[in-house]
């Protein structure tokens, strides 16, 4: 299970098993979506699978995740997503009403994200050999000329920005799965981020890195960027927006909010002289109203993320080994 958690074990599996088997330059970039040129057009192409349990939760369900997750991976390359594929793996005995509810959610989410599901596939596995519904989506989109967003472009002096409060998705899943109450309902933040990204690019194409901190949370995303760019990252722990309900749940369960999954947030590395206009553009968008500067990229301690704590000390924010919360996306 740890190999699917988005942490160190996932990275090990990718680098030592998949990359040698498939090895090519596009794959070697290890971005959320591959940036490709085809017939003169710049394309972003991504694929992802969804095995969340339960299938439905406050704020969404597996159908929303399947669309928004792939749309957001494309958006993290600066692309405008256009078309998706959608494959279902169904466990024998799953009610057709459940499958229909998931399909309707996919259709609604696709319309909200302004993408079209144009092809798909369905397979059925024996009872006991699945978890009701698994979904794989793939997507393509167009990248505008002059946009070059990838983790290798992080530079010392870049400002690190997060688009809103972190940890909501993982805690929403946990609250439903385990029947826990935290004084208020915690809803997933799942949402398509294309509009927010395009609003940021409209004020400057000089955005170096975008990443959606899903599996492994903010900590995994920042560690991946630091490793790809051979730079260090310094966070102000107090500046990271953590909702009270998330902080309470994490304190109760011994979790760190920085490692909890998100499905409608992004982290951006932006040159310092563009940071103010980018943050202003984010604040003007519904999905970026609570955007905050949380740190900076530095030349010191390359490939390491550290956080300045509220007590005035520092701590290393390492890549998680596996996953704190299984099957959250």
UniProtKB/TrEMBL annotation:
Top-rank taxon: Bacteria
Member of which family?
A: Belongs to the HypE family.
Can you give the residue ranges of the PurM-like C-terminal domain?
155-305
Q: What is this protein called?
A: Hydrogenase expression/formation protein HypE
Q: Cross-referenced Gene3D superfamilies, in alphabetical order?
A: PurM-like C-terminal domain (3.90.650.10), PurM-like, N-terminal domain (3.30.1330.10)
Domain PurM-like N-terminal, by residue range, is 32-143
Signal peptide start and end residues: none
- Tell me one Pfam family matched here: AIRS_C
Organism equals: Streptomyces lonegramiae
């Amino acid at each position: 299970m740890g190999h699917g958690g988005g942490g160190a074990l996932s990275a090990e599996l990718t680098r030592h098993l998949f990359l040698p088997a498939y090895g090519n330059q596009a794959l070697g970039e290890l971005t959320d979506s591959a940036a490709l040129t085809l017939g003169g057009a710049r394309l972003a192409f991504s694929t992802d699978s969804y095995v969340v349990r339960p299938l439905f939760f406050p704020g969404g369900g597996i159908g929303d995740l399947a669309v928004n997750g792939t749309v957001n991976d494309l958006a993290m390359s600066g692309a405008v997503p256009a078309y998706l594929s959608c494959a279902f793996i169904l466990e024998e005995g799953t009610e057709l009403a459940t499958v229909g509810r998931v399909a309707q959610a996919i259709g609604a989410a696709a319309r909200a994200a302004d993408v079209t599901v144009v092809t798909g596939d369905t397979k059925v596995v024996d009872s006991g050999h699945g978890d009701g519904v698994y979904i794989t989506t793939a997507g393509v989109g167009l990248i505008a000329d002059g946009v070059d967003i990838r983790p290798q472009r992080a530079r010392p002096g870049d400002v690190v920005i997060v688009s809103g409060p972190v940890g909501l998705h993982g805690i929403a899943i946990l609250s439903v799965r385990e029947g826990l109450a935290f004084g208020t309902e915690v809803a997933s933040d799942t949402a398509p981020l294309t509009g927010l990204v395009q609003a940021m690019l409209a004020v400057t194409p000089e955005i170096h890195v975008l990443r959606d901190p899903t599996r492994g949370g903010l900590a995994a995303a920042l560690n991946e960027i630091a490793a790809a760019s051979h730079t260090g990252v310094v966070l102000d722990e107090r500046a990271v927006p953590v909702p009270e309900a998330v902080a309470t749940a994490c304190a109760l369960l011994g979790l760190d909010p920085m490692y909890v999954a998100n499905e409608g947030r992004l982290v951006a590395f932006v040159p310092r002289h563009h940071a103010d206009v980018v943050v202003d553009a984010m604040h003007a968008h519904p999905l970026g109203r609570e955007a905050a500067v949380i740190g900076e990229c530095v030349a010191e301690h390359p490939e390491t993320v550290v956080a300045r704590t509220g007590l005035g000390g520092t701590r290393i924010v390492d890549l998680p080994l596996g996953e704190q919360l299984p099957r959250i996306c």
